[in-house]
Specification:
The chain has about 190 residues and is an alpha+beta fold. Helix content is about 25%, strand content about 40%.
Length: about 190
């Protein structure tokens, strides 16, 4: 599948469904971008957090972060954070739509993920403070049989599935892997 096809299908599938929204409450609001880039085929962009950052140390996630009072919207928060963390200019992102809100179970965040396509070349500039490096993963690698593993973990007496994606020695798991799974589920019946 080419990037243009994936972008069009993503926009169509997101527009045709009702998004799960977590109402305002005790959880900290965060927004991330699920950036799609063209490397001859579609790739998803992730950011590996430094070992010194305040939360989610050393983990791989999508670029983004906490919503600030000055952010006009959740999308604006995601775009601002992407620019700060990995040097992705806001103007380079074409938003396609939002996925379901996703809660973190250990750190009390609710994340709104926005899928966006980046059509022009961008030089990634991890800030070094929050983000150690940028990781690009081919979309098709996430779809491969065995690309997604699931384990069942118990926390606070509740047993939940925990998803994992391994790619080139990196492991994507937790809320980020659930966001990836939500995204891939959009295409479960696509040819």
């Amino acid at each position: 599948m080419r990037l243009d096809e994936l972008a069009a299908l993503t926009r169509q599938r997101l527009a045709a469904r009702e998004r799960r929204v977590v109402p305002p409450g005790p959880l900290v609001r965060a927004a991330v971008l699920v950036p799609l880039v063209d490397r001859g085929e579609p790739y998803l962009v992730f950011a590996k957090r430094t070992d010194t950052v305040g939360s989610h140390r050393g983990q791989i996630g999508f670029p983004g972060g906490t919503v600030n009072p000055g952010d006009a919207s959740l999308l604006e928060a995601a775009l601002r954070e992407c620019e700060e963390e990995i040097g992705l200019p806001r103007a380079a992102v074409e938003p396609l739509g939002a996925l379901d809100d996703t809660e973190t179970f250990a750190t009390n965040f609710v994340i709104t993920p926005w899928v966006g396509v980046v059509r022009k070349p961008v030089a990634w500039r991890p800030d070094g403070e929050e983000i150690e490096r940028v990781i690009e993963v081919p979309f098709k690698a996430l779809l491969e049989p065995g690309g997604l593993r699931v384990e069942h973990w118990e926390r606070d007496g509740v047993r939940r599935p925990v998803y994992f994606f391994d790619y080139n020695g990196d492991t994507i798991w937790g809320a980020t892997a659930r966001i990836v799974k939500h995204y891939l589920d959009l295409f479960a019946d696509a040819p």
